[in-house]
Amino acid sequence: MGLQISADAIVFDLDGVLINSEPLWRQAEIELFASTGLWLSDSDCALTQGLRIDEVVDYWCRRKPGLRCDRTALAAAIIERAIELIQQQGAALPTAVETVHNLKQQYPLAIASSSSLRLIDAALQRLRLTDCFRQRLSAEQELRGKPHPAVYLAAAKALGIAPERCVAIEDSVNGMLAAQRAGMSVVVIPAKEQRQRPEWAEADRCLESLAELPAALAPVTG
Fold first, then answer.
1. Could you say which of 15, 54, 171, 204 is catalytic?
2. Which residue of 4, 114, 120, 186 has the lowest C-beta tally within 10 Å?
3. Cα distance between residue 145 and residue 113, in whole Å
4. How many Å from the N-terminal Cα to the C-terminal Cα in the chain?
């Protein structure tokens, strides 16, 4: 076991950390981009994991200059479809609910996500975790999304705890970079198919599941 991480608060990413929504996001993106004539694969969608949806749309529009679409409308449609899918099919990742309920007894918890507040709320309601988080922050409220640190800095400020005393829980490289740039310790829990990426060596800890998180944290004192 690696060194335990000392922290006064825990800031969770949402998609792919607490709820198994990445496949639902991919479905929404593939469906809606197809309506513009752009056919994305799962591996294409993985390239933009962790970005705000408006930045995902911009990413593909830059790479496909012939793509004709209303970027704002397309981003909004993808969000609406993702919310619909989460409300219908969203499932907690293994041990997510139990881990959150365990940790909320010891730490103030926050969400710092690239998703919209409406989607964050829909996901937490689906998992019945709404009351577990003191703060919910969305990168849509910031000028720049992950990997920019703004949403993580906003989460620390909202909690009233210095960023260097927070630990972020992430599953994407963009999210890991955002938290590191905010000055936070970072625990990453990558999807199985991404565990071999060399970038994870930059994280403070790399775990296989949320079940391992409590043991990775130093006991709370005082």
1. 15
2. 4
3. 9
4. 24
Query: How large is the angle between the packed helices 71-89 and 53-63, nearest 10 degrees?
Result: 130
The answer to whether residues 13 and 171 touch, using CB atoms and an 8 Å cutoff, is: yes
Catalytic (active site) residue 13: yes
Domains, in order of start, for the chain: 9-20+91-216 (3.40.50.1000), 22-89 (1.10.150.240)
Active site residue 171: no
Cα separation, 93 vs 142, whole angstroms: 27
- pLDDT means per 10 residues, the chain with 222 residues, are 86 96 94 94 91 93 87 95 96 96 97 95 97 96 94 98 98 96 97 90 95 92 64
Phi-psi region of 93 (alpha: psi -120 to 50; beta: other; left: phi over 0): beta
